UniProtKB/TrEMBL annotation, chain B:
Membrane topology per record: Multi-pass membrane protein
Function: Part of the ABC transporter complex UgpBAEC involved in sn-glycerol-3-phosphate (G3P) import. Probably responsible for the translocation of the substrate across the membrane.
Protein's organism: Ensifer adhaerens (Sinorhizobium morelense)
Family per similarity comment: Belongs to the binding-protein-dependent transport system permease family.
UniProt keyword terms in alphabetical order: Cell inner membrane, Cell membrane, Membrane, Plasmid, Transmembrane, Transmembrane helix, Transport
GO biological process: transmembrane transport
Subunit structure: The complex is composed of two ATP-binding proteins (UgpC), two transmembrane proteins (UgpA and UgpE) and a solute-binding protein (UgpB).
Keyword Transmembrane helix included in the entry's annotation: yes
Transmembrane segments: 12-32, 75-96, 108-129, 156-178, 209-229, 269-289
Protein's UniProt name: sn-glycerol-3-phosphate transport system permease protein UgpA
Length: 447, 296
């Protein structure tokens, strides 16, 4: 009896080993794609993968969500070290420098050229491509889901408070906040401690540096300088407004973050990503009038382009040649105008190429609700050609630096810490992160 | 002693022990050695030349005032969390052990929170105890800032300790109830006949006899509070280490440093310090507290 069991198991194993290759030989080349988006946006990525698989018969892409940008980067690192990396991975803006210095990728340009695709690299919006490109302007990864920060306000509330202007400048925002308060609105403007709109976008559109060496593009020896720019005055302004209860802190720790605060009409103005445009439109009750605008600037400021947020797609080194053919085909497929339009429509992310944007404009995509207003994100991103201060932020350990600043804002707004002293301290801590990063990559230079 | 089983050869016992040895090597010593190597080198996350830097990673850790802040926060958290869980577990166990009519379902109910993952509990409590929208919102409306874990570090620390105690009290409860059930009934009955009330009996008979269990729980819960996965999960889901480092416990700091900051070297150095601290605490517990414990 025992013999027959072992024999049959053995035979079964033999059979599966023998049949395995012959059964898969005719199958398509499979390759993996890891991404960080989750929930609704994650499902849209799955749709894109399915569309690609249905569109051709040569390759099969297997898409797996890693549930979050930071976990995708961590898992990619772990997989790469174990030599089990996916062919394509989605890395967020703050992880760009880590990827660039890793030597673990196939440059976008090389991949497409090797596999016989001609891509017009100038077709990418400068404000988007330059964030991910080297200082010389060469793209190493493919811009994928892109957004920028915008200003949202509730028109119904504005009308009730008798405000007849658009909040284009921070002076106007203050005036609007006062009028809203007088009209009985408890929370005219909501903000949280996310540094992305408050520090990064603010600095870019006001042409203020965040760090030396062109925000880190020119070398790993960059040092933070935000404690000496207009950003300090901006935080002081926010602090004054918060003390007068015109600007109100809304965080998840307090019970409600800024976007729900806006969609529940608790608060009347917020700064958040254009990617929330869809959610806000869907969540606000029918009939409530609201609008999206470019982030306000201080009066007399020459507005510059805002920074792109989101993530790009990296093709990792060390995979079999056949997979690169598939990866190139997939990336080429994503870049087609039809896919660009589909992706923007279903997600709210902005198209990354000019032809994609033009095609959508020509189709009348932006002419009516619920998509009206999203074109302002493109306008904001390409308001001026990118300069040293507006190209992007190329700093090592930037996730940690962001967290340091978020903590500083917490200390300033929740515990009344002195603005200048707190920012000085944070810059010092941030610089320590940068120095350690520089030491970790000793001998490497940014190309 | 004379009944001791003895193996005649050396290879058979080795063979039996092998799976266990492999597991320990694979899941304990290997990572420990990797951490050790990392702590003394600087290596880019994707791999590459790992440069030996001696004690630089440790110097950096010790020079950081926020690191010492996190040691203090961790101590407060582990100590208060441990005492709270053991106290709550003890009270519940004593109550259930009286076997009053209808107490049976509670035996089951009190264990339930233990089955809930720490991060999930943290998420739930973040909503329940949120200062503007939760249970305390009405109190805050009358007395502004009476409860505001987003503003005061002490409130935030209380919040994470509450979540920790809520979850782990079920665990101490199981052990303490089992311990109570091995206390001879005759002792309790005798005391009752002499006119001792339930509290007197608990203080004079049951708790002293529970000493070995209480000591065991003290060691286990202190370790859990310091390095438990739940401690990280709870802090990450409720306060994110804030406000202004108010709940920045050591494990949270390590995970943040390693996986958000991609600073594996600094995180490894912190891990080694944490391991050392736990060894010291456990030593103190065995050296000074266990002396008071009588097993027989």
């Amino acid at each position: 009896m025992r013999v027959s069991v072992t024999t049959s198991v053995f035979l079964g194993l033999m059979a599966s080993v023998a049949l395995g290759p012959s059964a898969t030989a005719a199958e398509k080349t499979k390759f993996e794609f890891w991404y960080g988006l989750s929930g609704d946006l994650g499902e849209r990525v799955q749709d894109a993968c399915k569309k690609f698989n249905d569109s051709q018969s040569e390759f099969e892409i297997v898409c797996t969500s890693q549930n979050g940008y930071d976990t995708t980067l961590q898992n990619t690192i772990a997989a790469y070290r174990a030599k089990k990396q996916p062919a394509i991975t989605q890395i967020y803006d703050a992880g760009t420098l880590d990827m660039m210095l890793s030597g673990a990728f196939v440059p976008a340009k090389k991949l497409m050229a090797d596999n016989g695709y001609t891509i017009d690299w100038n077709n990418y919006f400068g404000g988007i491509a330059n964030y991910y490109a080297t200082a010389k302007g060469e793209l190493n990864s493919f811009p994928f889901n892109s957004s920028t920060a915008m200003f949202y306000y509730n028109i119904d509330a504005f009308q009730k408070a008798g405000i007849d202007f658009k909040p284009d400048t921070w002076e106007q925002v203050e005036e609007a906040a006062r009028k809203l308060k007088t009209a009985g609105y408890e929370c005219p403007l909501a903000f949280n401690f996310d540094t992305w709109p408050l520090m990064e976008q603010f600095s870019a559109i006001h042409n203020q540096p965040i760090a030396t060496a062109a925000n880190g593009y020119n070398g790993l020896d960059a040092e933070l300088v935000v404690n000496k720019t207009k950003f300090v005055d901006h935080v002081k302004f926010f602090k004054k407004m918060a003390d007068e209860k015109l600007f109100v802190v809304k965080t998840k720790q307090l019970g409600m973050d800024t976007v729900p605060a806006f969609t529940s009409q608790t608060c009347q103005m917020i700064q958040t990503s254009i990617a929330d445009h869809g959610t806000i439109g869907k969540t606000l009750p029918e009939g409530v009038k609201w609008e999206v605008a470019m982030l306000p600037v201080w009066k007399g400021t020459e507005r510059q382009n805002s920074l792109v947020g989101g993530a790009s797609l990296w093709v990792l080194a060390g995979r079999p040649e056949a997979e690169y053919k598939g990866a190139a085909a997939f990336l080429n497929y994503l870049a087609t105008p039809e896919m660009a339009e589909w992706w923007s429509t279903v997600t709210g992310y902005i198209p990354v190429t000019e032809t994609g944007f033009d095609a959508m404009k020509a189709n009348g995509f932006y002419d009516k609700a619920p998509y009206q207003g999203r074109e302002l994100a493109i306008e904001s991103l390409s308001f001026t050609p990118t300069s040293e201060n507006t190209r992007g932020i190329r700093l090592g350990g930037f996730t940690q630096i962001r967290k340091e600043f978020a903590t500083a804002l917490e200390a300033i707004f929740m515990q009344n810490a002195d603005v200048q002293a707190e920012l000085d301290k944070t810059v010092e801590r941030g610089n320590a992160v940068l120095r350690r990063f520089e030491k970790t990559y000793a001998g490497q230079t940014l190309n | 002693m004379d009944k001791r089983a003895a193996f005649r050869s050396w290879w058979l016992p080795s063979l039996f022990a092998l799976p266990q040895i492999i597991l320990i090597l694979l899941f304990f010593y290997w990572p420990a050695v990797a951490v050790l190597r990392w702590a003394f080198t600087l290596e880019p996350p994707f791999g590459g030349a790992a440069e030996f830097v001696g004690l630089a990673n440790f110097q950096e850790v010790f020079a950081d005032p926020l690191y010492w802040n996190s040691v203090g926060v961790s101590l407060a958290f582990a100590l208060c969390g441990t005492l709270a869980t053991i106290f709550i577990g003890l009270v519940l166990a004593l109550a259930v052990d009286r076997q009053l009519p209808g107490s049976a379902p509670f035996r089951f109910l009190y264990i339930l929170p233990y089955a809930i993952a720490g991060p999930a509990a943290g998420m739930a409590f973040r909503f329940i105890l949120s200062p503007e929208r939760g249970l305390m919102a009405s109190v805050n409306a009358a007395f502004p800032d009476f409860w505001n874990p987003a503003k005061y570090g002490s409130h935030a620390l209380i919040l994470v300790i509450v979540v920790f105690a809520w979850k782990w009290a079920g665990y101490t409860f199981i052990f303490l109830l089992a311990g109570l059930q091995s206390v001879p009934r005759s002792l309790i009955e005798a005391a009752a006949m002499d006119g001792c009330g339930p509290i007197r009996r608990a203080v004079d008979i049951q708790i002293p006899l529970l000493a070995p269990t209480l000591f065991f729980l003290l060691v286990i819960m202190m370790t859990e509070g310091f390095v438990g996965a739940d401690t990280y999960g709870i802090v990450a889901r409720t306060t994110d280490g804030g406000p202004n480092h108010g709940t920045d416990v050591m494990v949270y700091r390590i995970v943040e440093e390693a996986f958000r900051g991609l600073n594996y070297s600094g995180a490894s150095a912190q891990s080694l310090v944490l391991i050392g601290l736990i060894m010291i605490f456990t030593f103190i517990q065995f050296r000074f507290i266990e002396r008071q414990v009588h097993y027989k």
